[in-house]
């Protein structure tokens, strides 16, 4: 168990061991949820371009509409990230 201190500005530094284990970087976003005993924190994983490279290869085919392309892209992202 690691401890952190809340600053007067409401900020908390996440210990390096936890940041490294979760591959957190400056600018990453956390989701905080109230629970009966306090709160939980989870990482909001926003896809980066390099993370989704190649999953769109079947989205754009000759004769497909923009709506069909968009649906294929949304499906590919959902499949990759379990959404």
Automatic annotation (TrEMBL):
Record has DNA-binding as a keyword: yes
Keyword tags: DNA-binding
SUPFAM superfamilies linked: AbrB/MazE/MraZ-like (SSF89447)
Molecular function terms, GO-annotated: DNA binding
SMART domains assigned to the protein according to its UniProt record, in alphabetical order: SpoVT_AbrB
SpoVT-AbrB domain ranges (all copies): 1-46
Name assigned to this protein: AbrB family looped-hinge helix DNA binding protein
Entries under NCBIfam families matching the protein: lp_hng_hel_AbrB (TIGR01439)
Species of provenance: Deinococcus metallilatus
Record bears the keyword DNA-binding: yes
Gene3D superfamilies with a match to the protein in the record: 2.10.260.10
């Amino acid at each position: 168990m690691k401890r952190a201190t809340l600053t007067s500005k409401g900020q908390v530094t996440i210990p390096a061991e936890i940041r490294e284990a979760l591959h957190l970087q400056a600018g990453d976003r956390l989701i905080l949820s109230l629970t009966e005993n306090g709160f939980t924190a989870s990482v909001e994983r926003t896809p980066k371009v390099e993370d989704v490279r190649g999953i769109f290869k079947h989205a754009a085919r000759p004769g497909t509409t923009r709506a069909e392309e968009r649906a294929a892209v949304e499906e590919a992202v959902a499949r990759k990230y379990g959404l």
